[in-house]
Amino acid sequence: MVAAIPMIARPAQSCVIAKQICQHANPSTSKSPNSMSALFSPIRLADLTLSNRIVVSPMCQYSANDGVASDWHLTHLGMLANSGAGLVVAEMTDVERRGRISHGCLGLYSDDCEAALERVVAHCHRIGTAKIAVQLAHSGRKGSARMPWEGRELGTAAPDPWPTMAPSAIPFGADWATPRAMTIEDIERIREAFAAAAQRAVRAGFDAIEMHMAHGYLLHSFVSPLSNRRNDEYGGTLEGRMRFPLEVARAVRAAVPEGMPIGARITGTDWVDGGLTGDDAVVFAGALQAEGLDYVDVSSGAITAEAQRAPTPGFNVPFAEQVKRETGIATRTVGLIATPKQAEAIVAEDKADMVALGRAFLDDPHWGWHAALALGADVARPKQYLRAAPKMWPGAAYRD
Ligand SMILES: Cc1cc2nc3c(=O)[nH]c(=O)nc-3n(C[C@H](O)[C@H](O)[C@H](O)COP(=O)(O)O)c2cc1C
To answer: Are 248 and 219 in contact (CB under 8 A)?
Structure first.
């Protein structure tokens, strides 16, 4: 159990922590000695040092069996552990069975889930160069859905669906099931489920823990006024709407060792009038920082089925920049970042401390190696593949 959330004020100790992170995070103070690249300079988050600022964004694979990782995860995450990224964030991993999006989603709610992820993480550490984080989540009103490749023409609901829950009984979209409004007992149970899953993640060997507080899932749906119409202490003002995610953050922080970095993916904007804005993201990030979080990743959108985001390159960068500037917490951004130059500029111009890429890594699982070549930086590779490094393979220079 955790105590109720007090007024949001940043304690002095958190300011010190934040300042230390900023010093570590500032590309100008921590350039790698063998490169002028800001992207390839190391960054320290709590007691964890990442060799560069490239992050593989969490991406659902819909390939688990009752939440248990499969050989697909071993292959997929093992491959990305040798992508050149400093950190790989494993997909949204749900803290209870009913908190999955689909029947194929990964979980950390049973001993079988934990054992399978322990095997995957040990494999990635043994064969790879990246650190590995988990993204803990609960799907909320977006749960009990079909896998994307099953075809939405069949409807949104999963075969053999289950009841969903959310801050308020408002469906995600017109053809989605109406969730049940959560009781105080639900809130306490899910908060403890996050803490228990965090302890499982520590035992499974993950290097860092991220909480999914974006993309319309349960924790985001508490923060957004579009999905939270509660009139108890968990709704109303932004302070009330943040209360549950902050309680989760506090419970997770208390459940894991002090030096282990904890972060959250948050929303820069809901892209809907009356929804969350960059200013709200600043308040939320500051409150998470006060709870002892080490970084935030600023994403956006997906709070309702109708919400549309701008599909322009780096569309979340302005929100990340605002959060970084106004809070000082180490900040990551994501969203249509595709080229090394683009990623380098974001970090070098101090718009974010780290960049995450999703689809670019699915397209090119050695994106980090190719970025290093483009930016004149060094990157760690497994010894088995050293013969393809630019210094040993003239063909590396012949790319179109
Ligand atoms: C196949 C796929 C699965 C995704 N699953 C997750 C997820 O589990 N958690 C999450 O926070 N975002 C998820 N996302 C969003 C990505 O992490 C990322 O924010 C988004 O794709 C934008 O980045 P990109 O333009 O580099 O792909 C997913 C995206 C894709 C393409």
So the answer is: yes
Q: Yes or no: say if 127 and 82 are a contact pair by the CB < 8 Å rule.
A: yes
Q: How far is 113 from 197, CA to CA, in rounded Å?
A: 10
Cβ neighbours around 382 below 10 Å, total: 11
Give residue 35's pLDDT: 64
- Across the strands, what pairs with 45? 48
| Nearest atom of ligand 1 to the alpha carbon of 212 | 11
CA-CA distances (angstroms) from residue 178 to 169, 244, 377? 6, 21, 51
Does the predicted TM-score (pTM) go above 0.90? yes
* Residue 91: strand, helix, or coil: strand
Among the listed residues 226, 239, 213, 227, the one whose alpha carbon sits nearest the alpha carbon of residue 273: 226
For residue 59, how far is its CA from the centre of ligand 1 (angstroms)? 5
- Distance (angstroms) between ligand 1 centre and the Cα of 358 equals 5
Q: What pLDDT shows up at residue 309?
A: 74
Does ligand 1 lie within 6 Å of residue 58's CB atom? yes
Give yes or no for residue 64 CB within 6 A of ligand 1.
no
Structure tokens belonging to residue 1 = 């159990």
How far is residue 349's CA from residue 323's CA, in Å, rounded to a whole number?
Answer: 15
Ligand 1 centroid–CA 356 distance in Å is 9
* Nearest CA residue ID for atom 29, ligand 1: 59
78 phi/psi in degrees, rounded to 5: -60, -40
Residue 336 Cβ inside 6 Å of ligand 1? The answer reads: yes
- List the catalytic residue out of 62, 109, 217, 234: 217
pLDDT means over runs of 10, the chain (400 residues): 32 32 37 73 98 98 98 98 98 98 97 98 98 98 93 79 97 95 98 98 98 98 98 98 98 98 98 97 98 98 87 95 98 98 98 98 98 96 95 87
Question: Could you confirm whether 109 is annotated as catalytic?
Answer: no
Alpha carbons 141 and 152: distance in angstroms, whole number: 17
At 264, is the secondary structure helix, strand, or coil? Answer: strand
Q: What per-residue string of b and e applies to 133-154 under the rule 16 or more CB within 10 Å gives b? A: bbbbbbbbbbbbbbbeebeeee
Residue 133 beta carbon below 6 angstroms from any ligand 1 atom: no
Instruction: Identify any residues that bridge with 203 across adjacent strands, giving them in sequence order.
Output: none
6 CA distance to ligand 1 middle (Å): 33
Of 60, 62, 142, 213, best ligand 1 pocket probe by most atoms within 8 Å of the beta carbon: 60
